[in-house]
Amino acid sequence: MSSKNNCGFPKLRGRADATRQSEQGFTLVEMLVVIAIIGLIMGLIGPRVLNYLSESKVKAAKIQMQSFASALDLFNLDAGRYPSTSEGLDALVHRAPGVAAWNGPYLKGGNVPMDPWGHPYIYRVPGEHNAFDIISLGADGAEGGSGVAADISLDTITSASAN
Fold first, then answer.
1. pTM here?
2. Where do the structural domains in the chain lie, given as residue ranges?
3. Residue 127's closest CA among 63, 42, 74, 69?
4. Residues 87, 55: contact at Cβ < 8 Å?
5. Are 129 and 155 contacting, i.e. CB atoms less than 8 angstroms apart?
6. 143 Cβ partners below 8 Å, 6+ apart?
7. pLDDT digit string (tens) for 19-67?
8. Taking a C-beta distance cutoff of 8 angstroms, is the pair 148, 58 a contact?
């Protein structure tokens, strides 16, 4: 149904209306240019953002390990010893057999958190350089590695902060 003008005749679409309709929206070339620009920006910025995310996981692991060290020191003050390797870090949240003066849990949450990559921390008594070692195997979950896959130990954290 077409609309009518004041005289009762149907309105005819003029050339101006047709031109206006053809100018609505974006052309394929314009959209491809915008997508290319967004792709270039993401290509330049994306790796930096991912690098910051991986560095933040390393920092989170270091902070958790320092928290474990403080909790282990409190356990040592109460029990007179550090948990054995077989008792592990679980002794910080559950009473170990034979520990009479346990005043835990020494960690909030009732469980020992995994490292930021979802792997368990390694706890050893006695440690190589200290009374105990706490180690995260990094992003790859295997010994060794470099970058974010490098092993993180409490010993490397304390020696780096001493320098």
1. 0.64
2. 61-162
3. 69
4. no
5. yes
6. 137, 151
7. 555 567 888 999 999 999 999 988 888 888 777 777 888 888 889 999 9
8. yes
